[in-house]
Design goal:
alpha/beta, Rossmann fold, 43% helix, globular, binds nicotinamide-adenine-dinucleotide
Length: 357
C-alpha cells in the first residue's frame, strides 16, 4: 500500500511514518510544508528508506496537492497536517482557519477528484483518514463539580462543543470530512484522540516545555490551579492505533482513541520533576520551580475518552502506562537536547537540507 501522510514532519505524523517504515512493507509519501512545528530531523531514522519520500507542499495550495496526487497515486491518505497549539490559536487564529479548515477543504476536494477517477479495487479500497482531537467535544465536569462527573467520558456520539479557536477549527474540519462522506460517498475515517506525549514533541507543549525549563532552572508555569485533567496517550500507541484504523477501520466510522490515563496537569508536572530529580539530581528541588499563572481563556477543565469502540472492533489497546511512557519520554529528551535546540532555531533544515522554515 502507498500511504500519503500530511503533516508527517510533525510530532504525531513523524511517529506514524516511523511506525509504517519500521513495521510494515508500505510506502509513505510525507506531504508537509514545514511550519515551525515540522522537522525533518524527526524522520532521520527512516529517511534513507526507498519506501519513504518527502514532498514539501502546502495543503492550502490545490495545484501542489494535485501534483503530489498525480505523481504518487496514493492508495490512502492520513491527514494530520494542522496548526495544533491552543495558545497560538488564541493569539492568532488566522493560520488555524487557513490550514485546519480551508486546507482540509482543499485536500478533500483534491481527493474527491482523484478518487472519482480511480477504478476497480484501487477505488473500492481507497480511504481518507482525518486525524482529529478529543477537544472538539468541549469539556467534561471536573470530579469535584458534579456527582457523576468521573463516570462521564467522551464517546463517538458526544455532541461537539469546542471552546478554543484550535478546537473549533478541528471541529469544522471534522464536519467537512463527514459531509464529504455523506454527500459524495468519499470513504472517510475520523479519529478523535486525547493528549499525546512522547519523543519528538516540539518544546512548546506542556511536557517537553517543563523538562527543558526545569533543566535550565527556569520557572514551571501552570495555568490556574493546575487542576485541569487530560487523558494522556503515548505517541507510539497513537501511531499504532492510526495504522489499525487506516487498514482495518470501516469507512464512514469515527473512532475515539485514548490512554485511560486521566491526570491533573499538576500531577503530570510533579511526575516530571520527580523523574528529573532522580535522573539529573539538582541542588534545588525541581518542584520548587512550579508557579501558578492566570488561567488560559476558555480553558477546558477535563477531557476523558471512552476508547472501547476501537478496542472492541479493531483490537487496539495502549501498550504504555503513563508511568512507563513518561519515564521513556524524559529519558529521550535527556538524550536529545541537541534535537530540541535545532528544532527551536530551525538549524537542521537550514544547514543540512537548504530548506527554509
Ligand atoms: P504538530 O504541530 O506537531 O505537526 C503539524 C505538522 O503539520 C507539521 O509538520 C507542520 O509543518 C505541518 N503543517 C502545518 N500546516 C501545514 C500546511 N498548510 N500544509 C502542509 N503541512 C502543514 O502537530 P501534532 O501534534 O503532530 O498533531 C498532528 C495532528 O493530530 C493534528 O491534526 C492535531 O490536531 C491532531 N491531534 C494532536 C494531538 C496532540 O496531543 N498533539 C492530540 C489529538 C489530535
Amino acid at each position: 500500500m502507498k500511504l500519503l501522510v500530511t503533516g508527517g514532519a510533525g510530532f504525531i505524523g513523524s511517529a506514524v511514518i516511523r511506525h509504517i517504515v519500521n513495521n510494515t512493507n508500505d510506502e509513505v509519501i510525507n506531504l508537509d510544508n514545514l511550519t515551525y512545528a515540522g522537522n525533518l530531523e524527526s524522520l532521520l531514522e527512516v529517511s534513507d528508506s526507498e519506501r519513504y519520500t518527502f514532498e514539501q507542499a502546502d495543503i492550502r495550495n490545490r495545484t501542489e496537492v494535485d501534483r503530489v496526487f498525480a505523481q504518487h497515486e496514493p492508495d490512502a491518505i492520513m491527514h494530520l497536517a494542522a496548526e495544533s497549539h491552543v495558545d497560538r490559536s488564541i493569539d492568532g487564529p488566522a493560520d488555524f482557519i487557513g490550514t485546519n479548515i480551508i486546507g482540509t477543504y482543499i485536500l478533500l476536494e483534491a481527493t474527491r477528484r482523484y478518487w472519482g477517477a480511480l477504478e476497480g479495487g484501487k477505488k473500492a479500497n481507497f480511504r481518507f483518514h482525518h486525524i482529529s482531537t478529543d477537544e472538539v467535544y468541549g469539556e467534561l465536569p471536573h470530579p469535584n463539580e458534579a456527582a457523576d462527573a468521573e463516570a462521564r467520558l467522551f464517546t463517538e456520539s458526544t455532541a461537539y462543543a469546542p471552546s478554543s479557536p484550535y478546537s473549533a477549527s478541528k471541529a469544522s474540519s471534522d464536519h467537512l470530512v463527514r459531509a464529504w462522506s455523506r454527500t459524495y460517498g468519499l470513504p472517510t475515517l475520523i479519529t478523535n484522540c486525547s493528549n499525546n506525549y512522547g519523543p519528538y514533541q516540539f518544546p512548546e507543549k506542556l511536557i517537553p516545555l517543563v523538562i527543558l525549563n526545569a533543566l535550565e532552572g527556569k520557572q514551571l508555569p501552570l495555568y490556574g490551579k493546575g487542576d485541569q485533567i487530560r487523558d494522556w496517550l503515548f505517541v507510539d500507541d497513537h501511531a499504532r492505533a492510526l495504522y489499525k484504523v487506516i487498514t482495518e477501520g470501516k469507512p464512514g466510522e469515527t473512532y475515539n482513541i485514548g490512554g485511560q490515563n486521566e491526570k491533573q496537569n499538576i500531577h503530570v508536572v510533579h511526575a516530571l520533576c520527580d523523574i528529573l530529580q532522580e535522573l539529573c539530581p539538582s541542588h534545588t528541588c525541581y518542584r520548587d520551580l512550579i508557579i501558578f499563572v492566570k488561567d488560559r481563556p476558555g480553558h477546558d477543565l477535563r477531557y476523558a475518552i471512552d476508547s472501547s469502540k476501537i478496542e472492541r472492533e479493531l483490537g487496539w489497546s495502549p501498550a504504555e502506562t503513563f508511568e512507563t511512557g513518561i519515564r521513556k519520554t524524559v529519558e529521550w529528551y535527556l538524550r536529545n537536547m541537541g534535537w530540541c535546540r535545532r528544532v527551536q532555531d530551525g538549524s537542521y533544515q537550514r544547514e543540512r537540507l537548504g530548506v527554509s522554515t
